[in-house]
Design goal:
about 190 residues; mainly alpha; Arc Repressor Mutant, subunit A; Tetracycline Repressor, domain 2
């Protein structure tokens, strides 16, 4: 006889927890969110949360990135330069929104919490890089870009200035900046 490992995860309960975590994150910021507050707002026990997530960071990140993924579709216009411009523009608009500013808080917290840093890299940044990789690979296959590109380096070249402005200088990241950035980057890789 096979031993059952507990009740299956309820989608309704999962959604209640993720919604509660996301709302608390937007209302109070990452530092003020606690498992107790999530539990209270979702109407579930702390044990239920800990059964599915190992810690606060994991549930909050899951909630945040679940919401963020819906707002960042992968464009496919038939033009690599247009697709990258749209992707960088969408990401930049998201990052300067109230929701996106949470990323700054999470990155800051990740400087002191390696598990959190690993979580945001795995759950958020790696999928965004994969999206960019797909766009650039399509460009190579269509002959728009050189076939021997170091795609990971190109992604860093494009997104590095965006995060530098958002996290370090505070300079504007608008459509004009993004268009110039993409055009300069693509001049070297076509």
């Amino acid at each position: 006889m096979e031993k059952k490992l507990g009740r299956p995860r309820s989608e309704k309960t999962k959604n209640a927890i993720l919604t509660a975590a996301y709302e608390l994150l937007l209302e109070n910021g990452f530092g003020a969110v606690t498992i107790e507050k999530i539990s209270e707002k979702a109407g579930v026990s702390k044990a239920t949360i800990y059964k599915w997530w190992p810690n606060k960071a994991a549930v909050v990140m899951d909630a945040f990135f679940d919401a963020a993924a819906e707002r960042l579709p992968i464009p496919d216009t038939g033009s690599t330069i247009k697709d990258m411009t749209i992707q960088v523009n969408n990401l930049s608009k998201f990052l300067v929104s109230r929701e996106g500013k949470v990323i700054n808080e999470i990155i800051a917290e990740g400087q002191y919490d390696q598990k959190l840093a690993e979580t945001y890299r795995t759950m958020y940044f790696n999928p965004r890089r994969l999206d960019s990789r797909r766009i650039l690979e399509r460009g190579i296959s269509r002959g728009e870009l050189k076939g021997n590109l170091d795609i990971e380096l190109i992604i860093d070249l494009i997104f590095g200035p965006v995060f530098y402005r958002l996290l370090i200088t505070g300079d504007v990241v608008d459509e004009t900046f993004i268009k110039k950035l993409i055009n300069y980057a693509f001049e070297g890789i076509k």
